[in-house]
Specification:
The complex is a heterodimer of chains A (142) and B (177). Chain A has eight helices and one strand, in the order ααβαααααα. Chain A is mainly alpha-helical. Chain A folds into two domains: 22-67, no CATH class; 72-140, Growth Hormone, Chain: A (Up-down Bundle), CATH 1.20.1250.40. Chain B has 177 residues and is mainly beta. Chain B folds into two domains: 2-77, Dna Ligase, domain 1, CATH 3.30.1490; 84-176, OB fold (Dihydrolipoamide Acetyltransferase, E2P) (Beta Barrel), CATH 2.40.50.140. Chain B contains one helix and 14 strands. Classes of the chains: A mainly alpha (142), B mainly beta (177).
Chain lengths: 142, 177
């Protein structure tokens, strides 16, 4: 259990298993869960709310409330755009969920961006700003 | 953070279910057993999205039950220390406030609320800045950082802070629409 005690998302210490796993942004989870909810609705005549667990229900409400992008095409574009920047899955999804406005905010929210020399100096800041700008464009034309 | 991961579980099935619908029975039992549960290691299992593989069954001596190793894909929600996420405030009191991010509860103590925010009791208890420009009350949306998780076998509980840069009330939740 010693590995678990050291976990710290700010340094991307989230355990081997989760580091390799696919992270999902809230908007992606919303698509998956809504699809599943509809399936349940079709299969049973009754109220689907009584068929799903409380965890499912709460998660669905949460991701619906905090999804930045509603349109499935936009969601795909966001992932494509972010994946061009050599981000870890966890970083990618944090940025996609929180949509920071400035590179300063991005570094504060995802401190692990500092590591690995990916975004150093002014060139690094510009790169992040460009990335955030791309995201806001997707949002605008959604 | 939500993850899409592959998990494995040994499912026990009573012999009366053996027949052409064995697989269906296994899958529906898996969904019933696993969805909505929480483990300290993998977090909350929100939804099973697919079954990858069902291994060879093994008869358990003495009972006749058969154990099948089942590999399945699922969406889990696992909070991490140091993670920043958005949450909805559910209760405010003088000790601090509780917020919910999906299935997980997060407590933010009043020591971890900026010093310029004061507790106001009343019908709608809240934390407000002296100039009244920022207010945290029930149903507010906040962005917080998880600074601690208490993980036991069946539950995860988090402690959060909003006393840091770029954290706190999300100024205009309407803008995200």
């Amino acid at each position: 259990m010693s590995g678990e005690e050291e976990e710290n998302a700010a340094e991307l210490k989230i355990g081997e298993e989760f580091l390799k796993a696919k992270c999902l942004m809230n908007c992606e989870v919303a698509i998956i869960l809504e699809h599943k909810y509809e399936q349940i609705q079709h299969m049973s005549d009754g109220d689907p709310a009584s068929q799903v667990s409380q965890v499912f229900e709460k998660s669905l409400q949460y991701v619906k409330r905090f999804s930045r992008y509603k349109n499935p095409d936009a969601v795909r574009q966001v992932r494509e755009t972010l994946s061009r920047y050599g981000l870890a899955e966890f970083e990618l999804c944090t940025l996609g969920n929180l949509c920071p406005d400035t590179s300063g905010e991005a570094f504060a929210l995802v401190p692990s961006l500092h590591s690995g020399g990916r975004f150093q100096g002014d060139a690094g800041n510009d790169k992040i700003d460009k990335m955030l700008n791309d995201l806001s464009l997707i949002k605008k034309f959604e | 953070m939500f993850f899409h991961i592959v998990l494995e579980r040994n499912m026990q099935l009573h012999p009366r279910h053996f027949g052409p619908h064995l697989r269906d029975k296994l899958v529906s039992k898996l969904i019933k057993d696993v969805e909505g549960t929480c483990s300290g290691r993998h977090g909350f299992v929100v939804a099973i999205t697919g079954v990858e593989d069902i291994g060879k069954g093994l008869i358990r001596e003495g009972t006749g039950y058969v154990t099948f190793p089942v590999k399945y894909q699922c969406v889990v929600f696992r909070p991490f220390k140091g993670e920043i996420l958005e949450a909805v405030v559910t209760m405010v009191n003088k000790m601090g406030f509780f917020a919910e991010a999906g299935p997980v509860q997060i407590f933010v103590s009043n020591h971890l609320i900026p010093d310029d925010m004061e507790f106001q009791s009343g019908d709608v208890p809240n934390y407000t800045t002296s100039d009244g420009s920022v207010k945290i009350q029930k149903d507010s949306e906040v962005r917080l950082k998880i600074i601690g998780t208490r993980v036991d076998a069946t539950e995860i509980f988090c402690i959060g802070t909003i006393k840091d840069d770029f954290l706190g009330v999300i100024s205009d939740p309407g803008a995200a629409m």
